[in-house]
Amino acid sequence: MIFNRLYFNRGILYQNxxxxxxxxxxxxxLLLLSLPLDxxxxxxxxxxxxxxxxxVRGELLWFFAISIPVVIGLFLFRYIQAGGPSDxxxxxxLKRKHLLTMNLLTGFVMILxxxxxxxxxxxxxxxxxxxxxxxxxxRAVWMWGLTMSVISLFMFTLTVAVGMCIGxxxxxxxxxxxxxxIPLLFWEAFVLHLQRYLLxxxxxxxxxxxxxxxxxxxxxxxxxxxxxxNELGIYxxxxxxxxxxxxxxxxxxxxxxxxxxxxxxxxxxxxxxxFMFTVVLVSGAYFTMIEPRGSEMWGVAGYIIGGIAGYxxxxxxxxxxxxxxxxxxxxxxxxxxxxAALILYVPVADWNxxxxxxxxxxxxxxxxxGGDHYIYVxxxxxxxxxxxxxxxxxxxxxxxxTLHQKIVDSDPSLRQMGVNRTIRDEEEVRIDYxxxxxxxxxxxxxxxxxxxxxxxxxxxxxxxxxxxxxxTYILDGDVRHIGIRSGYNGDRTAFITNPQLVRxxxxxxxxxxxxxxxxxxxxPWETFAxxxxxxxxxxxxxxxxxxxxxxxxxxxEIKPSYSRLIEWLKENKLxxxxxxxxxxxxxxxxxxxxxxxxxNLKMVYAxxxxxxxxxxxKQMIVTKNKKIxxxxxxxxxxxxxxxxxxxxxxxxxxIRGQNAxxxxxxxxxxxxxxxILLDK
Length: 680
Hints:
Distance between the termini: 107 Å
Helix content: 40-55%
Strand content: 5-15%
Structural class: alpha+beta
Low-confidence stretches: 539-551
């Protein structure tokens, strides 16, 4: 009797449901309108089979799970944040643990009952439908109920635990969502800090699905990857920990701390530094992203500004006033500032040996250039198996280590991260080592191509590099047919369906790719044609069905240097279906374009508007010379970055069909072109 009277006080329960029960009813109504009603009224010509109910308006359902429980927590425990109600409730003949138990129980009922009523009605509605829009089994229903329950209870208990340390309801709610977002902000901003100030740091070094560390950010990935058992287990464990902490905090909390910003003295320095350091990271990241070229101190200035603003903001929140000056303000700020500076500096300091660490060849088991490879399947990006992209070739390992050592020895400046990030003659180099001791070592650099030409040539001439870079391994698969599209005229196409010709084409294309020289790979010329390889679908029983289906097509280039492949196209009467003859072009129009913006690179490409619009009224030169037109059809420069160049925008006017556009640099002009262009 005593146990029931103390832990299940009917008066408290009755008061809670009478005063706040409407929140549970709203939760139920929102869930019913969002899930079973949507499933019952949706129409699809072909029913969609789903394995998670979060594929049906999952973002909205998750939003309810991370918002309504917070509101319930704020209302149920509003009494501890206001002076009068706090005195009243704590004067009742109940121990705090009993009072807390009653309120937690009320919250659990108001959260769980709507969720499981919705789950039951959803299963019932699905069973009644004769022509359902969605097909799912009972596991999807109870997994949805379990997921919603765990996440909702986590948000509720987090709200209650935070409320024990915060004395104001508005600040309590803001703090709850700040705690949910801070891990994500901290992670992303700190990774950006390392990328900016630690030479060679790759974005994949701290590989982690950061979207899963915040229930708020998780909304964006629900449809594709609903929470699994591991994720739910973490949230369930955190919920239990928060409940335990709530009992501990509530027992220590003073009644008179109601309306105070921070209720525990020990929490104040944690709040100050946490708030300040978060603002430091966000401010530094923002200034780093917007810094102009050549202004390397913008990021540092951002950290300093963030530190001052963050510390002052934390003090104002704690004191609930902007009048915060005191004799201890500056000394305390100095301590926090030094701590923040050390956290930022130590990981990127030169003496930690990160930047200069280059493994010797005998320590490397295998190596990869180019980073991870992903494929896009069913609206989600899936990382491919790493093993096929690594090479254990000793010669290739030596070439990569030589390139890496040259980069470190040259001590390249840190790449700027501001709005003008493009640098002329720059190449990204990603290196991943798997060492013989079982560890991995990854680096990423941006280097000037011209300064490392010999070392890059030593790497790129290996078949190990070309196989990964140009994905020739796909050509070893089972190809259904091949489509080829002209680089000059998209209407010119050819298809190869004969199995023998498909095999011959695949072998020749792979051979041409692997036989490319370094100069061929760096060629500035556009391709003669593009190739799309269509793969055969695997048997449905294949364990790798998803990945195999993802490789159902791949795009390759037929470069002008692929002479054997072009000759094969001619022999099989496919070349004429793709090439454009000078007799098909009525005329060629040239307009000179001067690029003169030192320090401000811009992408130059074939721009139809530049010729057709000609807003500046530039002089246009037109020629019908068949030799010039024939030479134009054999050379097309690809787009490139420049800050100082003279180029020609060119339009080829076809007698029939769509016109073509191209660019040439002044140095690309033949003698005949110079005769009609430069003289004028």
